[in-house]
Amino acid sequence: MWGRREWNDDTLVTEIRKGNKEALVQLYDGNYASIKSYILKNSGSNDDVDDILQEAVIAVWQKVARPDFELTAKLSTFLFAIAKNLWLKSLNKAKRTELMEDHHEDAAVSAMPQVESRDLQIVVRYMDKLGDTCKRLLHLFYFEEQDMKEIAVKLNFANADTAKAKKYQCFKKLEELVKTHFQKSDFIG
Description:
Elements lengths: L8 H10 L2 H21 L4 H20 L9 H31 L6 H16 L4 H12 L4 H7 L5 H22 L8
Helix pairs in contact: 1-2, 2-3, 2-4, 3-4, 6-8, 7-8
């Protein structure tokens, strides 16, 4: 590119921290093709590409601005992972919305949200008995749909694998608590 600098990842992070908009443009332009390809192959449109890439660049900018941020992979890999996660959440949200619209059109199933709500209330009540770490971890994962890396950072775990192992332990504890007080038939039809 004529007249434009191309920075390596470390310099790019430094320039983003300084607020250099040219660094964000390089990040956006340098990753547009790969993210576009991914989104278009996974039911997206060109508008989706622009929206997701803009959100991803903003997320990278916010994360890089944190004093404790440490780049552990290529910046392009980091950005792609964020964009992919945002796109999957977007698809999941659209799918849930579609299911909800279908659900409301079918009057015969109108009692179902009450059952799901009751079941959810039971699970949340038993989550309160797990302790703060387990409760927060399960909430971040299941209700806020955060990935293990984000959870590891928020809960000060060593890494995503540690968070994943802890999530499994917490889920098993929750499952045991619920199973001691309820039978499977209490939740089905």
